[in-house]
Specification:
Helix content: 25-40%
Number of helices: 9
Strand content: 15-25%
Mean pLDDT: 97
Strand order of the largest sheet: 6-5-4-3-2-1-7-8-9
Structural class: alpha/beta
Length: 262
């Protein structure tokens, strides 16, 4: 996958870089790695061997677990921490809040981080929470990645992970560590309730920064419940999605696999 960084390095315009990735992995498999607690339960050496040479999209802190094989590192300024990159060939893909792009670019510059790809995420004031992809179940929003923008998910999987994989034309997606969250950990079912131990719903060994308060009960519930319509969306678009997680609350129709199945 080294050819991808070479491909975009010859292009200056950020939108043209997105255009250049259209269907570059047509018919292939994308492995999206996220920061759920099951990620670090897998033997790292075995996981790296399984992923070597594959199209790997590592979200935020998950990069540190698979850095030797990461094709993309999906980042935002939220929960950011310093990273030591294993290879200069990993594409650093930033999603920026559309209403605060100058401020977030300033922060990235201060961190002395490289930017290879940028996609603005449209949230408030243009899109309210009840208009997000998870709340509306409108997964056609993901096609807007090809137009150089993303719709508030919420969450990097719904804003960058799945949209980027689909933009590149994959027909098979494997998620690793996509545990989403556990509603039973919330103190109450009040829509504004929080999980006071939200940090524990992450691969905590990978975090050098605070995870914050996490989503409200209603937000996480919609993020989970929308996976029913998400499954139907993938089925309609002939994309197979498999989940490597024994705790993910995503729709039961998604096939669950083990590390040995990779």
């Amino acid at each position: 996958m080294k050819s991808l960084i070479n491909k975009i390095n010859n292009i200056q315009d950020t939108k043209e870089r997105i255009d250049a990735l259209k269907d570059v992995a047509k018919g292939e498999t994308a492995y999206i790695i996220t920061c759920g607690p099951t990620l670090t339960t897998h033997d790292r050496e075995e996981l790296i061997k399984k992923l070597d040479g594959k199209l790997v999209l590592a979200c935020k802190q998950a990069y540190d677990y698979v850095k030797e094989v990461a094709t993309f590192h999906l980042l935002s300024v939220y929960n950011y921490q310093d990273y030591t990159y294993h290879s200069a060939d990993t594409i650093r893909h930033w999603q920026l809040t559309a209403m605060n792009i100058p401020g977030e670019l300033e922060r990235i510059d201060r961190w002395k981080q490289r930017i290879d790809m940028i996609v603005p995420v449209y949230s408030t004031p243009w899109i309210q929470k009840w208009q997000t992809t998870a709340y509306t179940r409108d997964f056609s929003n993901w096609s807007q990645y090809g137009e150089g923008k993303a719709v508030w998910g919420p969450g990097i999987m719904y804003e960058s992970g799945f949209p980027l994989a689909l933009h590149m034309g994959v027909k098979d997606i494997v998620t690793i560590g996509w545990d989403i969250g556990d509603l039973s950990k919330y103190a109450s079912t009040d829509k504004m309730a929080f999980d006071n131990d939200w940090t524990k719903q992450h691969a905590t060994d990978l975090y050098k920064t605070e995870t914050g308060m996490g989503p409200e009960y209603e937000e996480l519930k919609n993020t989970i419940d929308c996976t029913k319509e998400m499954y139907d969306f993938f089925l309609d678009n002939e994309v197979k999605v498999r989940i490597l997680s024994n705790t993910s609350p995503a729709d039961e129709r998604f096939e669950r696999i083990t590390l040995q199945d990779l």
